[in-house]
Design a protein that fits this description.
Number of helices: 5
Strand order of the largest sheet: 2-1-3
Helix content: 55-70%
Strand content: 5-15%
Number of domains: 1
Shape: elongated
Largest sheet: 3 strands, mixed
Structural class: mainly alpha
Radius of gyration: 15 Å
Length: about 110
């Protein structure tokens, strides 16, 4: 049994014994965490841009950022972007998520 703890979604217990099912459960937990994080960012995109990138955006740019974030939210996480988390889950009984890897993906999306 593995536990994934997130400040956004609480604790998720990974109970599957089958490796593929366990990986699916991990992916679901990461999806849920990322979706909740994006939902928080969507509430105040101007503040997020000012805080994270020290940038201001006009209405067109705000709409573009919102569209990109919504598109990301609709997609499944790509576990290759989260290898450090997956490796921690393999080695530890309990893993606490932070937003660092999730923001890397968001940065690549918005800046890349």
């Amino acid at each position: 049994m593995k536990i994934i703890e997130s400040p956004l979604m609480g604790k998720r217990v990974i109970t599957a014994r089958n490796k593929q099912v366990r990986l699916f459960q991990v992916k679901q937990a990461l999806n849920q965490h990322r979706d909740l994080l994006i939902t928080k960012l969507l509430r105040d995109i101007p503040y997020f841009l000012a805080f994270k990138y020290n940038a201001r955006a006009n209405e067109s740019e705000l709409a573009q950022v919102k569209s990109k974030l919504l598109d990301l939210q609709k997609r499944d996480v790509d576990l290759t972007n989260y290898t450090s988390i997956v490796e921690q889950i393999k080695k530890k009984a309990m893993v606490k998520l932070n937003n660092q890897d999730f923001f890397k993906e968001i940065d690549q999306l918005l800046l890349g």
